[in-house]
Amino acid sequence: xxxxxxxxxxxxxxxxxxxxxxxxxxxxxxxxxxxxxxxxxxxxxxxxxxxxxxxxxxxxxxxxxxxxxxxxxxxxxxxxxxxxxxxxxxxxxxxxxxxxxxxxxxxxxxxxxxxxxxxxxxxxxxxx
Length: 128
Prior knowledge:
Blueprint: E1 3-7, E2 10-13, E3 18-25, E4 33-39, E5 46-51, E6 57-59, E7 67-72, E8 77-82, E9 91-98, E10 117-118, E11 122-127
Parallel strand pairs: 2-11
Antiparallel strand pairs: 1-3, 3-8, 4-5, 4-9, 5-6, 7-8, 9-10, 9-11
């Protein structure tokens, strides 16, 4: 079974940068899209970015131009480089693997959930 372990969260001031990492181990029965979601207190689960199995990348409008998703296949790791962070980026960030996330993610009200493989989440706090 696939396991995802995230790291790299923390606290930064607005305008700062962080890089999140998601290291995968185990096997999935299909080639996965990889992605990042986030959930802020009192808000629904929000799709952030997708890295498709064909290496295409997609971003939510709220992070486009500021966040970059990438992968290191040798390390089985997916990254989310976050720059020009804003207080509204504050959330728990989750790495996810699923058969298909696509250019707009899948719509989930809760993350994590049982419909895909999820990491444990990492807190990102951006202060003004």
